[in-house]
């Protein structure tokens, strides 16, 4: 946090928290039995990050994204990724048009990426060429077509889905694109009591109708509140040590990382953890991000950014397991170093 960033008052924190909880409550009413998943989605939203949802069909991934867009009160588009999808189908392109005088000119027609919330359904079914159309959009919130760059609406989120067990007709996302997702979240099944509730209370599984609980202006104020959440230097140093320990050559790397990690997490992982820890703290009504917030977001923010050795699959080792080992072994407070003067409240 820079010296010119104003700290939030307790009243401002509580006001922002109530706004964020209205979004979370709406998701909890729509997607039953997935409270932790819903909380991570709202955390990513507040941190202005993209999310990759991985899970079997029928678990409500699409409904979750539609509900989020409705609650936020912003524009939403859904794009079904298929092997024949072209980059222009994502970004848009130029079409030859004729005006009333008979003059012809090329006119740009925006693609579905020009929205606030883009649902990239089954993103791994499109070819790498089409997947790469999202790289600039996800990182820089803009699109370049035929040398002309156009800014995307703000906020801009990509929420993508993929099936973890289907391999035929799919193209695994390259590491560069996976790295652009703030979180990768696994969508698991629900318990039998929740299934019973759905059967009894929702005919044909149709969720209750939702109304927007916020809008673009209120979202902008929420983003300002997240930016004002204080990140102590000790917490920032802890995040840096976690990311450093994900590299096999690091002296602090756990044995499981040395054995199975081919490449560790990128600096973008540290940024993702820091920003999402701030958002997580706001949801808890805290003016400061703490170690507990880092613990809550470290796995979804870092596990997908570690490239595993081929032996990991054979031995059943996952990125989640590696990050958990790092959390277990890396100390929250760095030892044997002189204390530093912090630039904010404790």
Report the span from N to C terminus. Answer: 13 Å
Provide the succession of SSEs: HHEHEHEEEHHEEEHEHHHHEHHEHH
Query: Do you know the CATH topology of the largest domain?
Result: Rossmann fold
Largest sheet: 5 strands, parallel
What fraction strand? 15-25%
Find the structural class using helix and strand composition: alpha/beta
Give the number of helices. Answer: 15
The main sheet orders its strands as: 2-5-8-1-9
What is the highest CATH level, the class of the largest domain? Alpha Beta
Instruction: Please tell me the overall pLDDT.
Output: 90
Assigned CATH architecture of the largest domain: 3-Layer(aba) Sandwich
Q: List unreliable stretches of 5+ residues.
A: none
Rg, nearest Å? 22 Å
What is the number of beta strands? 11
CATH superfamily of the largest domain, by name, is P-loop containing nucleotide triphosphate hydrolases
Query: What's the overall geometry?
Result: globular
Can you tell me the number of structural domains?
2
User: How much helix, percentage-wise, in residues?
Assistant: 40-55%
